[in-house]
Amino acid sequence: MNDSSALGEFLRLSRGRLTPEDVGITSYGARRVPGLRREELAQLAGVSVTYYTRLEQGQSGQASETIIEALARALRLDDDERAHLHDLARPAPAKRRRSRPATVRPGTRQLITAITDVPAVVLGVRNEILAWNRLGHLLLAGHLDYAAPDRPADRPNLTRMLFLDPHHRDLYPNWREEAARAVASLRLMAGRNSGDRELAELIGELSMNSPEFAALWAKHPVAGCVSGTKRFRHPEVGELTLQFEALLLADEAGERILMYSAEPGSPSEAGLALLGRDQNHVEAGARLIVT
């Protein structure tokens, strides 16, 4: 999908989610399709119906900041949706060549490795895992090779695993909620990086191989995912309820550290401690065998 089509799709779907009552318009008679009519939204935003129609049909070039902001107000968009609309109206230039695989700064790797009691993962702009500490690996993908993030060719990707890796998918007892959150976050990232070829290929791969992803993507949800709560059903330590925080790395576009923590004194804290202790026992046994 090109940038104009994505802008038009988002406008159309956002318009369809509003009712005349939502915006204080009196509606007469039955409507063939739900949502506001184009002329109603154009009137609310203070633009001509012809111009708005061209935007929605992908037939117009870049709209002004004033018009985009007027449309955002008329559509009652939240902060994430408003930012996404501006991103779609001002797309980044397409990259002619593939970018080099992202790498983790030595200091960042050292930092997360030093954190032994909290799962930590370094994510790239496409949700690819650039590095993790031992507990992050055990929590999210203990069935994969610990060194996999160091190999760009088979580097794990959290969004891909959520939809295409049955082991990772089984971690989430509320998988549908996690899937919806992941797609909404990916939409926001895609709007900010519309010229990213590898990101477009990831979206295409998921759309082709996961009907569930394709159905969610078609709804064009948009939401940031920087903090919150996740529930896990871990195969080794059972149910966990963890809070997560995504910390944006300075000077690294889109890269962030994702960290999980449990409420002090909770069964989940005990579960994380058990997961780390089991790994320490395994590593200690391996060292004894080597020596």
Structure description:
The protein has 291 residues and is an alpha+beta fold. It is built from 13 helices and five strands. Strands 2-1-5-4-3 form a five-stranded antiparallel β-sheet, sandwiched between helices. Helix 5 (79-89) packs across helix 10 and helix 11 (197-209) crosses helix 12 (211-218). It is elongated, with a radius of gyration of 22 Å.
Reading off the top of the CATH hierarchy, the class of the largest domain is best stated as Alpha Beta
| Major sheet: arrangement of strands | 2-1-5-4-3
* Run of helices and strands: HHHHHHEEHHHHHHEEEH
Binned, the helix content reads 40-55%
Proportion in β-strands:
5-15%
What structural class results from the helix and strand content?
alpha+beta
Give the count of structural domains: 2
SS summary, helix count: 13
Q: How many DSSP-defined strands?
A: 5
Task: Give the termini distance in whole angstroms.
Answer: 57 Å
